[in-house]
Design goal:
Number of strands of chain A: 0
CATH superfamily of chain B: Fumarate reductase/succinate dehydrogenase, transmembrane subunit
Distance between the termini of chain A: 66 Å
Number of domains of chain B: 1
Shape of chain A: extended
Order of helices and strands of chain B: HHHHH
CATH superfamily of chain A: Fumarate reductase/succinate dehydrogenase, transmembrane subunit
CATH architecture of chain A: Up-down Bundle
Oligomer: heterodimer
Number of strands of chain B: 0
Shape of chain B: elongated
Radius of gyration of chain A: 19 Å
Structural class of chain A: mainly alpha
Number of helices of chain B: 5
Largest sheet of chain A: none
Number of helices of chain A: 4
CATH class of chain A: Mainly Alpha
Number of domains of chain A: 1
Largest sheet of chain B: none
Helix content of chain B: over 70%
Strand content of chain A: under 5%
Order of helices and strands of chain A: HHHH
Distance between the termini of chain B: 53 Å
Structural class of chain B: mainly alpha
């Protein structure tokens, strides 16, 4: 018997993305990035524990172009996942579920995450310089 | 009034063979991680560019060590739960799915253990 492919929903080719679906996908994606970020945090802690030489090596890696790029991606993922996570917890408590609130809180998560990222990255790079 | 059948209540299990433990742990770790994440970002900002000695004494402070270990524990648990759902949703080849689930579970545990050991070695 031939196996028919299972139907896909939503139909991605004819699907107009909304803010609510975009924030949902971004939540999952930032969560995946944060799993990687957590591993980088552990490597940093191991470097501090291992001694001044390994810490310097880690610090050099993280202050190069590659490291700063990772740091910005990690900080944005944490800021967004944190703010949008609070939005999800409010939903779990039954609050803000109507369409206009969901859109307002969605924009608040995105804009708040951009501001928080700019502040943290600015202060960290300023402090490290 | 309960919507659960008497048999379901006796067994304590639904058709998924488990209750709401996964959903609930994800919320509990999220509630713990919200203040811990703000604390972590604040620590990063205040201690940017710290030397090795400064970083060691920062982590060695009892309050920081306790919060850092809590952060690592909750973050890897929460991350494991999240990655598990993503794999269950998108990986439809059962052997690959089980392999990935085990890889995620074991790496989350090993990373958390390594991070906590590092904090303890610095703090103790």
């Amino acid at each position: 018997m031939a196996v028919r492919p299972r139907p896909l929903s939503p139909h991605l080719q004819v699907y107009r993305p909304q803010l609510t679906s975009t924030t949902s996908i971004m939540h999952r994606f930032s969560g995946m990035i944060l799993s990687l970020a957590a591993v980088f945090l552990v490597i940093g802690l191991l470097a501090v524990a291992s001694g001044a030489e390994d810490y310097l090596r880690y610090k050099t890696l993280m202050s190069g172009g590659f490291g700063i790029g990772l740091f910005i991606a990690f900080t944005f993922s944490l800021s967004y996942h944190l703010l949008n996570g609070i939005r999800h917890l409010a939903w779990d408590a039954g609050r803000g579920l109507d369409v206009s609130s969901a859109y307002a809180s969605g924009w608040a998560s995105i804009i708040g995450a951009v501001i928080l990222t700019a502040v943290v990255v600015g202060l960290v790079l300023g402090g490290a310089a | 009034m309960s919507l659960r059948s008497p048999l379901g209540r006796v067994r304590g299990l639904g058709s998924a063979k488990q209750g709401v433990a996964h959903w609930w742990s994800q919320r509990i770790t999220a509630i713990a991680l919200a203040p811990l994440s703000f604390w972590f970002l604040w620590v990063l900002v205040v201690n940017a560019g710290a030397s090795h000695e400064e970083m060691r004494s920062l982590i060695a402070q009892p309050l920081n060590a306790v919060l850092l270990i809590s952060f690592l524990y909750c973050a890897f648990w929460h991350g494991k739960l999240g990655l598990q759902v993503i794999i269950e949703d998108y990986v439809h080849h059962r052997p690959t799915e089980i392999t990935l689930l085990l890889v995620v579970k074991f790496s989350a545990f090993l990373s958390a253990a390594a991070g906590i050991l590092a904090v303890l070695r610095i703090a103790l």
